[in-house]
Amino acid sequence: MIQAKIIKLLFVAIFLSLAAGFSSLLYFSYNDYIHPKHVYGTWIEVGAPSYSTETLTLNEQGVFRNNRLIATSFEFDGEQVFIETGSGTTIYQIAGTFNSPQLRRLQPSIPSQRFVKAGYEDTVDMEGGGGASKRRAALSEHFGNK
Predict the structure, then answer these.
(1) Preceding peptide of 101 cis, ω within 30°
(2) Which residues, 6+ apart, have CB-to-CB distance to 35 below 8 Å?
(3) Among 45, 52, 77, 114, fewest CB within 10 Å belongs to which?
């Protein structure tokens, strides 16, 4: 009788300790997932002409656009970066892959903007596909040969 109670008590104690351990694992994993350290660094605009390429730097001190402070803080929910400035809220979404981390601006949506993390520029076409310039070159070549 006493042994049965001890076994039940031991089973409940093990179950509760496992539940507490699993809960704490979930809690700490989620807090690490939403930590802004995942977006810290310098992000370089993709698809812009080289003379007007923007850089966006996110760090502990705030948000810098082209080396100028635009906000002293930002929020990161694991998927989106929210930056509150005097001209409103700008929202960026994590895009790309682990080997090519990118940010895509969601708000304001026009003009569209995409950034790649510094150090990963070789993983994307920094000219943005070069569609317009390639078409101009092809047309120029076509009509220049006649």
Answers:
(1) no
(2) 76
(3) 52
